[in-house]
Design brief:
This protein is of the alpha/beta class. It has helices at about 15-25, 40-50, 65-80, 105-130, 155-175, 195-200, 200-210, 220-230; strands at about 5-10, 30-35, 55-60, 85-90, 135-140, 180-185, 240-245. It has one domain (about 5-190, about 220-245): Rossmann fold (3-Layer(aba) Sandwich). Helix 5 links the parallel strand 5 and strand 6 (about 180-185). Helix 1 (about 15-25) crosses helix 8 (about 220-230), helix 3 packs parallel to helix 4 (about 105-130) and helix 4 packs parallel to helix 5. It binds beta-D-glucopyranose.
Length: about 260
């Protein structure tokens, strides 16, 4: 995978899948803006690791639920690396409640972080690509639950369902300008979001048995697909979602 010369923003890049995306694209030669909101030390550590390997990365603290935060990230990419070639809407949270238990505050928070950030991230990245007069890519980190109901996880499923249609609608709108919008939908991944399942042996076993490939993904298995999606090898891929789930959607109930 060759991402040399590309400048990429990854939101929520200092943890979980975001960190694996940063590692994979930096290893392929991209210069990376690592967005974070908490744990600055993790972002700093990642920058150090990438720089030591001869790569380029900076950490930028920004709240992606605001357009000011998104502008700060894109501005940093332009100031530091001269341009923007890809923007990865990765920041996300999960708060499990059924419809009947859900309150307004939880829905607002989950939708703001998972979906609103991605809508305006896509908008502002597209404006930057148009200003540069260059093609560009937006990657929307979704989930199998953009399509697959998960009882007890309503706000998250709603946000990822929205992500699905953001990808399709923005992809169709921006196609003529040679801007690609692609969703990447992981299944179960060994990250902090899944800590509860991963630290309970019987839950973990049940989950693994429901995955045709029989293992929960290592974050790198997702990051490497994102690197491909950003690359020119994926230049005909847009307005759709790539499922990277070990077959879980077809293998049994989610956990
Ligand atoms: C969720 C996980 C869940 C997985 C498979 C992911 O999107 O974040 O909590 O285990 O989907 O159901």
């Amino acid at each position: 995978m060759d991402l040399n010369g590309k400048s990429v923003v990854v939101t929520g890049g200092n943890s979980g899948i975001g960190m694996a995306i940063v590692r994979a694209i930096a290893a392929a030669g991209a210069a990376v803006v690592i967005d974070y909101i908490a744990h600055p030390e993790d972002a700093a550590e990642l920058v150090k690791e990438i720089t030591a390997d001869g790569g380029r990365a900076i950490g930028v603290e920004a709240d992606v639920t605001t357009t000011e935060g998104i502008d700060k990230l894109i501005g940093s990419a332009v100031d530091e690396f001269g341009r923007l070639d890809a923007y990865v809407n990765n920041a996300g949270i999960e708060k499990r409640h059924s419809l009947l238990e859900l309150d307004e505050e939880v829905l607002d928070e989950v939708v703001a972080i998972n979906l609103k950030s991605a809508v305006f991230g896509t908008q502002q990245a597209a404006k930057q690509f148009l200003r540069q007069g260059s093609p560009g890519v937006v990657v929307n980190m979704s989930s199998v639950h953009e399509d697959w109901p998960m009882p007890g996880n309503l706000a998250y499923c709603v946000s990822k369902g929205g992500m699905r249609m953001l990808t399709r609608t923005a992809g169709v709108e921006l196609g003529p300008q040679q801007i690609r919008v692609v969703g990447v939908a992981p299944g179960a991944v060994d990250t902090p979001i899944n800590e509860q399942t991963m630290t309970d042996d019987s839950l973990r076993q049940k989950l693994e048995n429901s995955i045709p490939l029989r293992h929960v993904a290592d974050p790198a298995e997702i990051g490497e697909v994102v690197a491909f999606v950003i690359s020119d090898q994926a230049r005909y891929l847009t307005a759709t979602t790539v499922f990277v789930d070990g077959g879980i959607m077809h293998g049994g109930g989610g956990l």
